[in-house]
Amino acid sequence: MKKLMIGNEAIARGAYEAGATVATAYPGTPSTEIVSTFADYEGLYAEWAPNEKVALEVGVGASIGGARTLVAMKHVGVNVAADPLYTFSYTGVNAGLVLVSADDPGMHSSQNEQDNRGYGRFAKMPVIEPADSQEALDFTRLAFDISEEFDTPVMLRVTTRLSHSQTLVETGERVEVGLKDYKKDAPKYVMLPGFARLRHVEVEKRILQLKEYAETTELNRMEWGDKSIGIITSGVSYQYLREVMPEVSVLKLGMVNPLPEKLIRSFAAEVDRLIVLEELEPVIEEQLKAWGLKVEGKELFTLLGEYSPEMIEEVLLGISSRKGSGLDQEIPPRPPLMCPGCPHRGVFHTLKKMKLHVMGDIGCYTLGALSPLDGMDACVCMGASIGMSLGMEKANGEDFARKVVAVIGDSTFVHSGITPLIDVVYNQGTSTVIILDNDTTAMTGHQDHPATGKTIRNLPTRKLDLPALVKAIGIEHVRIVDPLQLDEFRQTLEEELNRREASVIIAKRPCALLVKKAPDKEFYVDPELCKSCKLCIKIGCTGIYWVEENRKAVINPNTCVACGLCPQVCTFEAIKIVEG
Amino acid sequence: MPKQTTNVLIVGVGGQGTLLTSRIIAQVAVQMGYDVKVSEIHGMAQRGGSVVSQVRYGEKVYSPIIKKSDADILLAFEKLEAARWLDYLKPGGKVIINDERVDPLPVMSGKLKYPVDIDKRIANLIPDTTIVDATRMAEECGNSRAANVVLVGMLAAAINIPAEEVENAIREMVPAKALEVNLKAFREGQKYLSATLNRL
């Protein structure tokens, strides 16, 4: 029987069936489940790499070494891996390598919505885009063959809606392709100028061969219907289109780089009006326009966000969204927030009270930027906090640096916080870095990393010693403190900020969601002592809420995990332990 | 098999268990031989944000997401979320609301108000609305955390999918030690909705 699978599971299955023996990734929504699913297949190698660049480099080595290899990351992860990627395109593969780029139109869980189809054109590699889980499986399998046939890495580009939608999948059998022979071949794999010039010639030949392949591959297909409109589309947009316009003629592209020019011209010649339907950037449209085709695209459809069936209906059929309930005016937004008992809350409460300039980073703690904690000045990408805080200091001087901190999670620090910390030491920065060590990669669903001491399969491994690492870099002042012990945390932070030397504070406490045991006590707010000052409400915890009728705070026993933060915030000692 | 696609929209607050509910319903639809698509939200929104799971089944389903004004049923684990997603309900559609209030951050901090009687106002707008205290019912079955399965029971009754199939899916997806409570919760939910329908 067919099975329901999210797109990410189907990709892992496709790699498994294609005979892949190595899979590597750094977790990132919406890509995470790809390699975590692959790790469920026994006897194959799977790993969490410290970051996407390392993941791809491990993949390059595995491919050259002869193993079919799957590498997965979110769209912005490909930026981190771009350096090896562009040159790996020159060397080509030995055994097939498929790089999954999981893009996030609509930014459900990301800091930008870049369109990674652009990488395909830039790196001159094929880009394949499935439209449901069955295609995710089938296309992944085929991508390994394409990779080997054309001696190129292949990008499988998916989006959140594909990665996290379940659709029916018919699985197949695994083919045991075995390892390819490894032979030393320096002119192919050593990219110094003399060799790389020769490889570039091969890359240009390859892209022409791929163009020919694109004309006939089963990845691209024409579906003829009403020829008054012909629509070229790919990915999940195809499904939205079919939902609202089942009769229209469609050229569905499964291979979005390079494009099949002859096929597209023949499609264009048959239809009265040619439209390209693509989420985000006009990657396909601009190439068609360069060929001189008369085509409509972004003058109809937005460059912003995720598409939907009703949006396509509105643009192409003129059906506008039906009348609303009228309730929407008064519905308060519900942004995500830190969990009750979250160690980050103690940090951001303190940073706000001390009115510090906070250079932030990527993780659950980015939520510390939101009201009521309002505890972040800037956040750009993984690992950026430490370099930004050094830049702030170099721009504004050492006195200003007494008010600047970088905050970065443990997994993010390992990902890309180590080199900027070396820069702080090397170039004599004096500010303080807070490593929020909750012993996991929390935001993406609790993956292990080098500093947890566990592998992707939850097996013990050598644990990266963060304090020893930081000291080895040359930070002399390393303090470890529990961020939910507010007085101690604040005192430590004040001491380190005032010191005109670089320092690191490791705010150490496991993620509240990892704490399995029930709380050993219960708190309540004594209404006699509560002075309605709302200090406890300003920590933004769902364990405590405000009742306007009597102007008192109340503990919610269903959500409170008795972390003990709000009693420390209350200046009237109104929050007490329930006796007995 | 009806040609028409059935659209089920399940909404709530991250952490309430909407994902399990949508997966049970989807599994049942697969067993019944339908084409099925499910769209889920993972990642940042799961941290206490507004979450939505969409289940679509029928002879042939293209889009994994439901159009506005196209959901046959809206199952809300939380009252405010019912209101937030109400525009997705088709005219004549059904609403099931769990009588649970989870204040979003702007309400907790007193900046914005939680709309008064929001569930009753929805019931005034949508004739086929059922409000239920699933948490209390689950408690009576032995564990308040089975509230999502009470709601599965109500959903099954509302969209007429066979109980036996749902119970099989629950057996597959719920750990053995929690199975009895969950099956009981499912049956209670089913009974509750059927009784409500009979009253109408």
Give an account of the 3D structure.
The complex is a heterodimer of chains A (580) and B (200). With 580 residues, chain A is of the alpha/beta class. Chain A folds into four domains: 3-216, 3-Layer(aba) Sandwich (Rossmann fold); 221-317, Rossmann fold (3-Layer(aba) Sandwich); 343-514, Thiamin diphosphate (ThDP)-binding fold, Pyr/PP domains (Rossmann fold), CATH 3.40.50.970; 523-577, Alpha-Beta Plaits (2-Layer Sandwich), CATH 3.30.70. In chain A, 36% of the residues lie in helices and 18% in strands. Chain A is built from 22 helices and 22 strands. Chain A has a seven-stranded mixed beta sheet, sandwiched between helices. Chain A has a five-stranded parallel beta sheet with strand order 14-15-16-18-17, with helices on both faces. In chain A, helix 1 crosses helix 7 (133-150) and helix 16 (384-396) runs parallel beside helix 19. Chain A is globular, with a radius of gyration of 27 Å. With 200 residues, chain B is an alpha/beta fold. Chain B has a single domain (6-199), classed as Pyruvate-ferredoxin Oxidoreductase, domain 3, CATH 3.40.920.10. Chain B contains eight helices and six strands, in the order E-H-E-E-E-H-E-H-H-E-H-H-H-H. Chain B has helices spanning 18-31, 79-84, 105-108, 118-125, 134-141, 147-158, 163-173, 176-199; strands at 6-13, 35-39, 50-58, 71-76, 89-98, 129-132. Chain B has a six-stranded mixed beta sheet, sandwiched between helices. In chain B, strand 4, helix 2 (79-84) and strand 5 form a beta-alpha-beta unit. The longest helix of chain B has 24 residues, at 176-199. The two termini of chain B are 27 Å apart. The interface between A and B is large, with 62 and 53 residues. Strand 8 (165-169) of chain A pairs antiparallel with strand 2 (35-39) of chain B, so a sheet runs across the interface.
